[in-house]
Hints:
With 137 residues, the chain is of the alpha+beta class.
Amino acid sequence: MKPKDIKFIEKQLGIKLPEFYVSTMLNYPFSEDSWGAEFLLCNNPKRIINLNGVFTKEDKSFSIGSDGGEYYYFIKLIEEEKVYIFDLEGSDEHMSTEANSWTEYLMQIEKTHDKLSQEKLKELERKANRKWWQFWV
C-alpha cells in the first residue's frame, strides 16, 4: 500500500489510522496473492472501505480484514494494538479478542500461511503417490 492509499482510506472513512497499522501497511509483510492480503489483513483500499461499513465514525473502530466468512477483524482507533472479532452473526465470539497485540496478530497470519503451504504440499504429495486407479485423490 502507498501513502496515497492510506490518505484515501482516512478521507473516505473520516478517521485517522493508528501509526502501527499505517507502518505495517506501508511495509506490507505478506505477498500480494496471499490469504492474509486477501482476507486477514486486507491490502486493497476499496475492499477495506467496504469492510468498514459495519462501523460508524463514532464507533472509533476500524476493520482490517475478515476470515472470508462472518468474522471481521478490527482494531480500535485509540492506539490500542489489540485485534478484535466482529461477528456478523452475533455468536459468542462477537466483540471478543482475536489477538492481544498487533505483533501477535501478524504472527497468527504467518502461521496460517505456513499451515496452508503445508496442506498444499501434502496435497501435491498425495497426487504424486496415488495408485493408478485412484481418481479422487
